[in-house]
Design goal:
Strand content: 5-15%
Structural class: mainly alpha
Order of helices and strands: HEHHEEHH
Number of helices: 5
Number of strands: 3
Radius of gyration: 19 Å
Number of domains: 1
Shape: globular
Helix content: 40-55%
């Protein structure tokens, strides 16, 4: 009898799955700061002054969406009030 072979050995499948789960979708303040290439203190100042997107509260923890931060950067890092309006318009584009 011939043995059944897999294209992906079990160890490789586990490694790939752990790499996918190792990329957080929701970031802590220091992770968000690192993503933006700034320090944690500067990031906190930007958030508290309304210059960066507001985090999402999970109990006592606050996290930032990685995709939102990347979209915010792509939009040119507008102040939070303008970003909130822009974010809504991006989700609901109007047909002209």
């Amino acid at each position: 009898m011939s043995a059944i072979t897999n294209d992906f050995p079990e160890d490789e499948v586990i490694r790939q799955a752990s790499q996918r789960s190792a990329r957080p979708v929701m970031l802590r303040d220091y992770e968000a700061a690192a993503l933006l290439g700034i320090g944690r203190t500067k990031f906190r100042q930007m958030v508290s002054s309304g210059k960066a997107p507001k985090g999402i509260r999970f109990g006592r923890a606050i996290r930032w969406s990685q995709s939102e931060l990347l979209d915010w950067v792509d939009a040119g890092c507008p102040p939070r009030d303008k970003w909130e309006i822009l974010k809504i318009s991006m989700k609901n584009p109007r047909s002209r």
